[in-house]
Amino acid sequence: MEDYRINLNYAKALFLVASDMGQLDAVCSDMRLVNEVCVQNHILETLFANPVIRESKKVAILNDLFAERITSISLMFLTFVVRKRRAINLKGISNAFIELYRDERNIVLSNLVTATEVDDSVKQAVCDAVNRHTGKTVELTTKVDPSILGGFSVTYDNNMYDARISSQIAKLRKEFSKNVYESKL
Questions:
Q1: CB–CB of 17/73 below 8 Å?
Q2: pLDDT tens-digit map of 11-42
Q3: Where in the chain does DSSP place strands (E)?
Q4: Which among 105, 96, 92 has a CA at the least distance from the CA of 25?
Q5: Residue 1 confidence (pLDDT) above 50
């Protein structure tokens, strides 16, 4: 079972160690890789959740997956997490670490959803607008969703700017469903 407090405590410990060793950026890229592998591979997550499989096997799997791709600090940390029987929390710990890193570096995560693929100038304009509003560096992710028909939506820091045509059509339908000209006698 995932627990936010456990994830955050382990992430803080790794964050402090990486910060003290001056490898915060490298460890953050390692945690992004771990998160990506955990998200894409549900079998791995099931394996980590299985209490029958020994920790030594789980450590061997982690070594096979990450030994040549991540720093020694990150590999030792992952081994430590598995030895403490918290392997099921690897995805949550990596998420918490990435959030701590963003807070430290004053980075805001922003999502841009459009109906078609956009070029780099549009992405840069969105980043500039979010930067002006928040005063933070913007990490932009994009998604193409043809169901919005046109326009775009941008989310950041629990804010959303909605300029989707599909939502404007829904608002118009709702407005036209009311009969404002009906006599109220």
A1: yes
A2: 999 999 999 999 999 999 999 999 999 999 98
A3: 107-114, 137-144, 151-156, 159-164
A4: 105
A5: no
Among the three residues 103, 127, 160, which one is the final residue of a domain in this structure? Answer: 103
Q: Count the Cβ atoms, other than its own, within 10 Å of residue 78.
A: 25
Q: Are 141 and 111 in contact (CB under 8 A)?
A: yes
Range of the structural domain that residue 19 is part of: 4-103
Q: How far apart are CA 112 and CA 139, in angstroms?
A: 11
90 and 8 within one domain: yes
Q: What is the CATH number of the domain that holds 110?
A: 3.40.30
Cα–Cα distance measured from residue 78 to residue 141, given in angstroms and rounded to the nearest whole number: 27
- Tokens coding 155: 């989310």
The predicted model scores a pTM of 0.81
- Relative orientation angle of helices 72-83 and 90-105, to the nearest 10 degrees: 140
What does the pLDDT read at residue 158?
87
Whole-number Cα distances in Å, 87 to 12, 49, 69, 112: 17, 7, 19, 32
CATH of the domain at 15: 1.10.520.20
